[in-house]
Predict the structure.
Amino acid sequence: MTVPAQASCLKQSFPESTIKYNRTHNGLTWKGRLRPTAMSPSYLVRILYVLGERPNVTVIDPPLENRNGECIPHMFGQKRLCLFRYKHDEWDSSMRIDRTIIPWTCLWLFYYEIWLATGEWRGGGEHPEMNDSEQKTEQDDK
């Protein structure tokens, strides 16, 4: 899918969200509010997407909390969410972000809330080791 097509789908699915294009990098930044359950807070989420790369998903507000000093599971550098198994190619740029990444973000937030309350990550999955380019991105995020 092209970046404008992704943007159109995101705006149609989430009309209150904002989208900014980055034509230099053929990408976009989406910001919107997600609420995984009726009892959950509303989370302001940012998705940075560049065509051909994996979306970079960050919770902006409220800040995610650790539990008793523990690192939050399934995150890269305690900044970006780990939403799917990269080595199994569970996401590619032909897929719609509004139908994959955003529902997966809601599910991640649901499991995060359970982890925060119980100390157990119920979301399963596997958290991969970062390759060199991901480690560089992590350092750039700091």
About this structure: Helices lie at 3-13, 101-118, 132-141. Residues 101-118 form the longest helix (18 residues). Confidence is low (pLDDT under 50) at residues 131-142.
